[in-house]
Amino acid sequence: MKIPVLKIEQFKESHSLNDFYINSFSNHIELNKKLLSKPHSHNFYLCVLFTEGSGIHEIDFNSYTVNPGKVFFLKPGQTHFWKFDTKPEGFIFFHSQEFYNLKFLDHTLQSFPFFYSNQNPPLLELSTENLNKLKLKFEEIYVEYHQKKLLRELKIINTINNIYIELTRAYTANVNIEKLVSPYYAVILENLEDLINTHFYKEKFPKFYANQLNITTKHLNRVVKKALNKTTSQLISERIILESKRLIIHSENNLANIADTLQFSDYAYFSRFFKLNTGFTPMGFRKKYYFIK
User: Fold this and answer.
1) Contact yes or no for 121/74 (Cβ under 8 A)
2) What is the dihedral of CA 185, 191, 197, 202, to 10 degrees?
3) What is d(CA 143, CA 124) in angstroms, rounded to the nearest whole number?
4) Which of 53, 229, 264, 269 could form a disulfide with 259 if both were Cys (CB 3.0 to 4.6 A apart)?
5) 276 and 230: one domain?
6) pLDDT, tens digit, for every residue of 151-186?
C-alpha cells in the first residue's frame, strides 16, 4: 500500500479559488471521509483550529491530543490521520506554497516557525483570549471564500497572513527573541532539510550536504548545532528513520525490500541501524504499532 498524497482539488466544497480551500472542520470530515479514512499526506500547507472535540492527531508517528484551542500545522509530505473521541469542530484551511509566496515576495512560509523546520513542533495551544480572537479571523476567511466578492483572493491571503503572524507571536511567546536563529542560519537549515529530503536514500553522510551548500562540514555542523542543538548526522538519520517507519507501516513490501529501497547494503545493517535509533527491530516496530492501534 502506498501512502496516498491528497491534492487540494480532491476535496469537496471547492469554490473555484485556485490552490486554496477552507471549511468548518465537521463539514470537512463529513464530506471527505473517504479520503481521510486512512493515513495520508498532502502536497499543500495545512492549518487547523479546534474549538470543540477531543481525540488524537498522529503526525509522522507522533501522537498529539486534540482539544479546544489546539492549532495544528502540516507541511507537504507529512503523514497524518485523526481519531476522535468526541465530535470535533473548528476550521481547517490549506493552500499551496505558490498561493502564499507569490503574494508575499519579501518573506516566505518558512518565515513562520511552525513551517520553518520539521524539527519545530507542529502544534500550538491557544489561550482562551487568543482562541476567540483567531476564531473570528478564520470565520472571516470562511465567509469571504463563499461570497465571491471583488478582490476576494487578496482579502483571503491578507487575512491568512494576519493569522500566521498572530500564531507566530503565540508560538514564540516564551522564546527569547535574541536567541532566535539568524536569517542566515535559517536559510542554510531550510536548504539542508530540502536537500536531505531529496537525497537521503543515497547520500547518508554530512560531507555531501556541506558540498551542496558550498560550506565546510564543520560550519554546517555549527549551524545545525546552533539552530537545533543536533548534528547534521542526526538530521540525516532522523529522516531515514522517518521514511523507514512510513514504509514499514504503510507499505506492503517485506522488510528486506524496504532495506533495499532505502539503499542499505543488506537487511542486517538496516535492522541494526533502525534498532540503534528506535530501540526496536523493524519487525518489532511493525508489531508494536499495530498492537497499539
Assistant:
1) no
2) -100
3) 24
4) 264
5) yes
6) 999 999 999 999 999 999 999 887 655 555 677 888
Q: For residues 138 and 28, what is the distance between their CA atoms, to the nearest angstrom?
A: 14
With H, G, I as helix, E, B as strand and everything else as coil, classify residue 231. Answer: coil
CB 235 within 8 A of CB 193: yes
Cα 97–Cα 103–Cα 109 angle in degrees, nearest 5: 40
Q: How does pLDDT run across 194-224, given as a tens digit for each residue?
A: 999 999 999 999 999 999 999 999 999 999 9
Assign residue 235 the CATH number of its domain. 1.10.10.60
* 156 and 229 co-located in one domain: no
* Claim to verify: residue 129 and residue 251 sit in the same structural domain: no
* pTM score: 0.85
Residues 232 and 210 in one domain: yes
Report the distance separating Cα 223 and Cα 182, nearest Å. 10
Q: Output the CA–CA distances (angstroms, integers) from residue 103 to 16, 153, 257, in the order listed.
A: 18, 10, 44
N- to C-terminal Cα distance for the chain?
A: 17
Question: By the 8 A CB rule, do 151 and 17 touch?
Answer: no
Poorest-pLDDT segment among 6-15, 42-51, 102-111, 208-217: 6-15
Separation of CA 7 from chain center? 15
- Phi then psi for 71, rounded to 5 degrees? -120, 135
Looking at the structure, do residues 129 and 213 belong to the same domain, yes or no? no
Cell 508494536 locates to: 288
Q: Which helix (H) or strand (E) holds 124?
A: strand 123-125
State the residue for C-alpha cell 507499505. 251
